[in-house]
Each structure stands twice: as C-alpha cells, then as structure tokens.
Design brief:
Elements (H helix, E strand, L loop, with lengths): L2 E6 L3 H14 L3 E7 H7 L8 E7 L1 H10 L9 E8 L2 E7 L1 H6 L4 H21 L1
Antiparallel strand pairs: 1-5, 2-3, 3-4, 4-5
C-alpha cells in the first residue's frame, strides 16, 4: 500500500494542531498548509469536503537525501493530508518508502524508512 492513514474523532483543525506538535518534536516543520475546500471555492468550484494538505520538511533530512540524489526533490516536501470522510477525520500520507522506491536507489531506502517511521509515529500520536 502506498499510503498510511489514521482515523480520529477530532475535527480536522484539531487533528492538524495535534500532528503539527508531534512533527515539531521530530524536527519537521509545516512549510505550507493548503485549505483545498477554500481554494476550490475561491476558484468557483463547489467542494464541500474539509480537506487540508500540509507540506512538511525536516531540513537536515532534506539536505541528506537531496545530496544523495537530486531526483528525490520530486517527492519533497512530504505531504500530509487531513480530511473529513463519513463523519471521521483522516490523517494520512504517501509512504516515503513507496516514493523512494521509484528512484531505484537502495542507499536511500533506509533513510526513507527512518523518515517514514518517524512520520507514522507522529500520525499515530495525533489521534
């Protein structure tokens, strides 16, 4: 499976606050937050689902993987989606190991695995 997703009874906004705190503890910062529903409405498109995309980055890890392979930048920054579906809030991400597999660089697989486990821990704690 290419993604990891958790479910919570928190509102999307509460889930974002929670996951942001845990990301900070792992030295990941939120570079940008997109309110997809708001942006689509701004463009005249009716979209009722609360849906947020957080772009997150750990600068030390970003430097490490980009120094090893500039192609990895195609996957950066990591994205975490927070959305509401069927009355539940979901927090999920594409797995870094799935993405790095596309670069076909075995040396980066262990780095991606470490980053993935750290991000998964943040998502798990946020529920």
């Amino acid at each position: 499976m290419f993604h990891y997703t958790v479910e919570t009874n928190k509102t999307p906004e509460q889930a974002i606050d929670a996951v942001t705190g845990y990301l900070m503890a792992e030295k990941f910062g939120v570079l940008w937050q997109l309110d997809m529903r708001g942006k689509l409405r701004e463009k005249g498109v009716d979209f009722d689902m609360p849906y947020y995309i957080l772009e997150v980055c750990n600068p030390v890890e970003a430097k490490r993987v980009l120094s090893a392979s500039p192609l990895v930048g195609y996957f950066l920054p990591c994205k975490i989606a927070v959305y509401e579906e069927a009355g539940k809030t979901k927090v999920g991400m594409a797995k870094p190991t799935a993405l790095i597999g596309l670069a076909d660089d075995g040396d980066l697989a262990s780095v991606a695995s470490d980053i993935e486990q750290r991000l998964i821990a943040c998502l798990d704690k946020s529920v």
